[in-house]
Amino acid sequence: MAEIYVIVGAGAAGIAAAERIRLYKKDVTIIMMSIDEYSHSRCMLHKYLGGERTAEELSFVEPDFFEKNNIFWGKEQKALGLDIQNRQIRMENGYQPYDKLLIATGSVFGIPPINNFRTASNVYGFRDLSDARKIDAAVKAKNAKHVFIVGSGLVGLDVAVGLMERGVKVTIAEMAPRVMPLQTDDTAAKAYQERFEAEGARFLLGIGASDSIVNDQNEITGVVLSTGETIECDFVICAAGVRPNIEWLKDSGLAMERGITVDGYMRTSAPDVYAAGDVTGLSGVWPNAMDMGRVAAANMCGVEAEYTDRYCMKNTSNFYGLQMLTIGDINAQIEGADIYVKESRNCYKKAIVKDGVLKAILIQGDISHTGHWQYLIKNSVDVSELLKQKDVFDITYGDFYGMDDLAEYQYAL
Ligand SMILES: Cc1cc2nc3c(=O)[nH]c(=O)nc-3n(C[C@H](O)[C@H](O)[C@H](O)COP(=O)(O)OP(=O)(O)OC[C@H]3O[C@@H](n4cnc5c(N)ncnc54)[C@H](O)[C@@H]3O)c2cc1C
């Protein structure tokens, strides 16, 4: 009988893994399951909300992906638990056995402990297509004019774009003093803030929500700020803070901290059980989830591969035509590091270099041909000789031409 490879989760990590497993193993049975009805890109959800794309158009795989790769995909199938002893997953309607298992269940949003937020009927997250559908329905039902968003990270800004596309006014509260605080510095944040404000958004930076007002239908109609001001709203969206989706594994005995504990090969504490993507808590971004999925897949198939991006955060965004790439912690306070900044009308760049090694880079504007930066940062390549000849931002892929392992990064954005 063919071995059974099971993947729980059909998002970035799960799909990347399935594709890789099929590449290595032509004859194993691959079974995927997901709560999702469509395999969709979370990064595109705002396009659904804004009416630009249908649910089908959020897919990031070819329509015949599952058929072509001979993968059985159980849509709308929720895994409820893991039985390590008997090598099976508990489902709503029975058990699914596995020989090799990959857990790729992503993350879930959290609701901050603000009065009424966790009990009111009109507080939403923005994580899955089902969330986007709920928000869409709420906009229509309420003929919504004004929405309060908690958090100005990628998710908060994405949902703001989707709502503003529909003429809904948004107020975005951010505890940090700038928008997208993890990926930007003050200059890059300001450029994004101005673009959003030009579209009608209002930001409350360094300000939190402290209370809320509910009507007799248990709906929040106003959010009280830490300044005392009350902002009226039709509903609230929480986009501050996600956590690995591990609740369903709590009785499994699997080693977990914030997320599922994995080693460099994406192995968990249980035999033949691997984990990849947001569920590991190692990263919260798409390209890292895919990389983890591919690494896990290789090891599941007996091809040794290591995930080495653990500490190299990479993020790309594009709001109102302004693209940005951030690799590493651009706000890191590194003693003795040199900070390089270059600003022109259309582009802003910042790099942190310590002892000839690039630690972080931010490019806002044209981010094409920048794949090599990830390689240099991840591999702590010493560029001190190059820096004697040229500006850090003039370093290109060509300076390392011939390095085989760099080639894959050239177009890797
Ligand atoms: C609105 C939004 C915008 C984003 N924008 C960006 C961006 O611009 N750039 C970027 O790099 N990253 C972005 N991200 C983050 C990125 O989407 C995630 O890092 C990525 O999707 C993680 O991939 P994953 O495979 O770990 O999880 P996911 O892609 O979330 O997939 C999880 C899968 O698990 C399934 N699942 C969950 N629980 C169960 C269960 N109990 N049983 C069965 N199936 C289950 C789900 O149905 C889903 O198929 C964004 C995220 C959001 C929400």
How does this structure look, described?
The protein has 413 residues and is α/β, with parallel strands linked by helices. It has 3 domains: 4-108 and 243-300, FAD/NAD(P)-binding domain (3-Layer(bba) Sandwich), CATH 3.50.50.60; 123-240, FAD/NAD(P)-binding domain (3-Layer(bba) Sandwich); 321-407, FAD/NAD-linked reductase, C-terminal dimerisation domain (Enolase-like, domain 1, 2-Layer Sandwich). Helices cover 23% and strands 26% of the residues. The chain contains 10 helices and 23 strands. The chain has helices at residues 12-24, 45-49, 65-68, 129-142, 154-165, 186-198, 286-300, 371-378, 384-389, 404-407; strands at residues 4-8, 29-33, 71-74, 79-83, 88-91, 94-97, 100-103, 107-109, 123-124, 146-150, 169-174, 202-205, 209-214, 220-225, 230-232, 235-238, 242-244, 273-275, 314-319, 322-327, 338-343, 348-354, 357-364. The chain has a 5-stranded parallel sheet. Strands 9-16-10-11-12 form a 5-stranded parallel sheet, with helices on one face. A hairpin with a 4-residue loop joins strand 4 (79-83) and strand 5 (88-91). It is globular, with a radius of gyration of 22 Å. Flavin-adenine dinucleotide binds at residues 8-14, 33-36, 42-43, 45, 78-79, 104-106, 126-127, 154-155, 158, 245, 248, 277-279, 284-287, 289, 315, 317.
